[in-house]
Known about the structure:
- Helix content is 19%, strand content 24%.
- The chain has one domain.
- The strands form 2 sheets. It has a 3-stranded antiparallel sheet, with no helix packed on it.
- InterPro entries: DUF1496.
Amino acid sequence: xxxxxxxxxxxxxxxxxxxxxxxxxxxxxxxxxxxxxxxxxxxxxxxxxxxxxxxxxxxxxxxxxxxxxxxxxxxxxxxxxxxxxxxxxx
Length: 90
């Protein structure tokens, strides 16, 4: 009895694989917005400075309203080197 049961248990996966109706086709509809930005701006960057929706890397210098700003590491924060804008002294 136990040998017959063991044989059936071993044969069941083979029977299931042979039957195409056992596993129906699965269709997943994904909207195109998932693969494109959809007109939205880029995600916030933690390793860069942001000015007017543009990302700047460490060391970048820009002029904003007549003031020179440089993208530098924030010395006051213990983290994975967050960057902030610092005023460049003339």
